Amino acid sequence: MSTLARRHFQRVSAAQAAEASGDAPMQGDAYQLMQAALFEDYRRLKSTQSMERKAEIKREILPKYADYVVGVLQAGRGAQDDVLMRVMLWRIDAGDIAGAVAIARYALQHGLTPPDQFERGTAAIIAEEVADQALRLIEAEDADTPALLEQLETVEDLTRDADMHDQVRAKLYKSLGYAQRDAQRLEPARASLARALELNDRAGVKKDLERLERQLRQSHANQQNDADQANPA
């Protein structure tokens, strides 16, 4: 079977299995095959200590699950799917926030739960893990700012009404504020960082917020000065 034919078969098989499972736990041959692959990949990751190397491995192995994910998202009706949820988390760790958000949208819509070892709910996990990854990218100056900002705004919208610890939501607003700042959206950035500080006074944004507020005051003063010069009394 050619690569294209195999990928098509995987997508169709996953879609059929997801549709047939309805809102019961995911089942079927396509799911069992992915579960087996995930088990082996999970063992490989567990035997690796370096977090950097773990991320590299995840980027290496994630393509094998891509067509399965596409099929499930296209035809799924909310079956609990541990493979899908694990791939969502691996995509975040691998830096594929957009791919993780696509799964998160489906998972939150249908109330899918994370793997057993996680004590937090799905909304809290996606909010915190995406925020952590975004902050790493921003700190390393390795972010595609417009794309990252759009992804963070999507996560904030998806998780806005979910119950989670204030510290987690503060971290999401912190990352959102920094992305807005880097995109020169200074007023929204000020609001986001202020909200992060309101939720957690140890969020680590106080000095950045003060700098941003000074920048905004100077910008407003310059605008007023320009207006006065253009329209002298």
What brief labels describe this structure?
233 residues, mainly alpha, Serine Threonine Protein Phosphatase 5, Tetratricopeptide repeat, 2 domains, 11 helices, Phage terminase small subunit, Phage_P2_GpM
Cα separation of the termini: 80 Å
Indicate the mean pLDDT.
91
Biggest sheet character:
none
In terms of per-residue confidence, which ranges show pLDDT below 50 for 5 or more consecutive residues? none
Number of helices: 11
Report the strand count: 0
Counting helices, strands and paired strands, the structural category is mainly alpha
Radius of gyration, taken over Cα atoms and rounded to an integer in Å: 21 Å
Order of helices and strands: HHHHHHHHHHH
Number of domains: 2
| Proportion of residues in helical segments | over 70%
Proportion in β-strands: under 5%
Q: What is the 3D form?
A: elongated
Region (Disordered): 214-233
Organism: Halomonas koreensis
Pfam families: Phage_term_smal
Biased composition (Polar residues): 218-233
